[in-house]
Amino acid sequence: MKRFLEFRVDLDNFIEELNYRVEQNNKKINELLDIKEKTFSNFVKPLGMMDEYLEQFFTPLSHINSVSNTDKTQEIYADSLPIITEYSTKLSQNLDIYKAYKEIQKNEQNSLNQEQKRVLELNIIGFELSGAHLEQKTKERLQEINIRKSELSNDFSQNILDATNAYEYIITDEKDIEGIPQSDLLNAKFEENGVTKYRFTLQMPSYIAYMTYGKNEKIREELYRAYVTRAPQNEKIINELLILKNEMSNLLGFASYAAYSLASKMAKDEKSVIDFLEKLLINSKEQAHAELKEVQEIAHKPLQSFDTAYYSELLKKEKYDIDEELYRPYFEQMSVLEGMFDFLNRLFNITFKKTDEKLWHERAFTYDLYIDDKLKARLYLDLEARKGKQGGAWMNNFQTHCIDEKGDEQLASAVIVCNFPPSSKENPSLLRHDDVVTLFHEMGHAIHHMLSGVNENEVSGVNGVEWDAVEFPSQFLENFAYEPHVLKLFATHYKTKETISDEMIDKLVQSKNFLSASGMLRQLEFSIFDFKLHTKLYQSDEVQNLLDSIREDTALIKPPSYNKFQNGFSHIFAGGYAAGYYSYKWAEVLSADAFFCVVDEGIFNSDTAKRYLGIILGKGGSQSMQELFKELMGREANPDNLLRLNGIKL
C-alpha cells in the first residue's frame, strides 16, 4: 500500500471531480444523520475523515496556483472557491450535526479520550461561530458572505502576484550596480542587442539585493515606490472585506471581527491583546530611537524609507565588521538543508532520506522522515524564487497523521515553500543568513505537523492549534539558526569546503539583534494596525488614517504619502491572520522561553528538547497550547524572555 498520496492535480477535470466529491459527501452526511444511535466512532470519526479527504484533493490545486501560477490555474482555482466555500459553510451550519455533537459529548463524556473530547469541543465552538444555531435566513447570508470573502481574498493575492510579475527595472550603467553582490548580479544580468543589462524586479531576492546594496538613491526610491504602490485596486477589496467581516461578526452576536476572532484563540479579550502589544512598544521605543540615531549618523542626510536598508547595511559592516556577502558562500542551499536535517537528528533523533518522486517543478524535491528507522512522514520542498510563484515563505499541510475510520494509520506530509535566490548549472543558490532563519522557521511548522502522534485528524499536527500559538514551534526552531554549535553543522564554504570560522560566527551572533528594537516596532505596527482595524468598521481614508495614527508611535521615519502598505498586507487580507497578526509576538513569548531553557541545558542533551518533542510536537492540537506549555515547562511563560531574545533591555 502506498503510504503517501501523489502530489498531482488534473486541471482539465478538477471542477467536475470536485462537484462529484461534494455530492458524494452530502449523501454521506445524510446517511450518517440517519444513524439512530450516534457515537464518536460511527458519526464524528467518519465526518472528520471526510473533511480530511476533501482537503487532500483540494490542497494540490491551491498549492500549484501559488507556486506555478498560470491563467489556467487562476481560472480553475477561482471557479472552485464558491463550490468548496458553499459546501464547507453549509456543513459548519448544519444544526442536526451540531445537535448530534452536543449529544455525543454529553453521552460519552466518561468514555472518550482527551483527543476525542478536544475534537468535540472545537467542533461545537466552530458550529457556534458559524451560526449553526441561527435562523435559516441568517445562515444563508453568512454563506453568501463566506463565498464572497473567499473570492475577494483570492483576488487580493492574485493582484499582488500580477503586479510583482509585471514590474522590472533595467539598468545599463555599470556605475548603478556598484556594490551589488556578484551572486545577485549574476541573477540580474542579461544580454540584449550586444549590450549587457541588469534586470531588477519586485521578487524578494532581487528587490532586497538592490535596496540593501544599491548605491543609486533614485533607483532605490523607484523600486521602493513600485513595491509599496503595488495593486492599488486592492483598496476596494479591503473596503468590501472589512464590511463583510463586520456584518458576519454582528450576525454571529459579536461587536466586532476582533471579538469574533478571539473566541477561538488563547488571548482572552481585546484588552489583553492591546495591553500586550503596547507594553512591548513602550519597552522597545527608547532603544529603537538610539538605533535610528546610529543609522542617521552614518547616512549624513535625512533618512527616507527607501534609505534604511542601504545605510543599515553600511552601519552593520562598520559596527560588527560583518559583510553579509562574505557569509553567503557558507550558506549554499542544499548544504544548509542537509545541515538542518543533521541538527534535527541530533536534537530529536529523526532522519530524512531523499526520494525520487517527480513533482510540479524540476526545482522541487521531497524527503521521507524516519524515527528509529520507522517511516513517519513526507516533506516536500520548493525553495527558489521564480516567475509565477507567490512571494514569501510558508508551510502547507497535505496529509495529517491519524487512525482513519477503518483503523489504519495515515502518515503525515507537509510542504515548505520559500523564495531563495535561484540556482543554475553555473551558480548554486547561496543564501543570506536571513534565508537560513526563514528555512528553520518553516521547518518548525513542518515538524509540528509531521511529528504528531495524535490519532484524530482534526486535532493532529497543526490542526486544532490556537492561531495565536501556531507560530510557537516555528519561532522556537528558527532561534537555533544563530547557535554556534548548530551553524558548525552546515556552514561550509561551497568551493573550499572550509567550515565557517569562530570569528565569523561571533560576528554573526553579535549582530543578531542589530536594529532589533526597530524591527520590534515594525512588527508591532503591523500587529496593532491589524487588530485595531478589526475592532470597528473602517473604510477608505479611515484605513489609511488609522495606519498613520499608529505610525505616530511606531514609525521612527515617516513613510511617504504614496506608501499604501495595506494594499499588500496579504497576511490579513488573503491569509488567516485577520485580527491575529499579534500572534507572532504572542507565540514568541512561548518560543523564547522554551528556547533559552534548551540552550541552557546544552542543546543536544536537553531534557526539555526531548519533552518538547513528545508534548508540543507530539500532541498537536489535542490540548490547548496553554496546557501543553505548562506541561512542558512546569509553569506559565515568562514574557521578559521575549525582550531578552531581542536584546531589548528592560
- Chain oligomer state: single chain
Rg over alpha carbons: 25 Å
Q: Report strand %.
A: 5-15%
- Main sheet? 5 strands, mixed
Low-confidence spans? none
Strands of the widest sheet, in order across it, are: 4-5-6-10-7
Mean pLDDT: 96
**Terminus-to-terminus distance:** 57 Å
Helix content: 55-70%
Number of helices: 26
Described by the principal axes of the CA atoms, the overall outline is globular
Class from secondary-structure proportions: alpha+beta
Keywords:
three-stranded antiparallel sheet, 56% helix, 26 helices, 650 residues
Could you explain how this protein is built, in words?
The protein is α+β, with helices and mostly antiparallel strands. It is built from 26 helices and ten strands. The protein has helices at residues 14-33, 40-67, 71-92, 95-107, 114-130, 136-166, 182-188, 204-213, 217-228, 234-251, 257-262, 270-299, 308-320, 324-327, 333-348, 433-450, 472-478, 484-487, 502-510, 516-533, 541-554, 570-573, 583-600, 607-617, 625-633, 640-645; strands at 168-171, 189-192, 195-201, 350-354, 365-371, 374-384, 394-397, 402-403, 409-410, 412-420. The strands form three sheets. The chain has a five-stranded mixed sheet with strand order 4-5-6-10-7, sandwiched between helices. A three-stranded antiparallel sheet has the order 1-3-2. Strands 8-9 form a two-stranded antiparallel sheet. The protein starts with 13 loop residues before the first helix and ends in a 5-residue tail after the last helix.
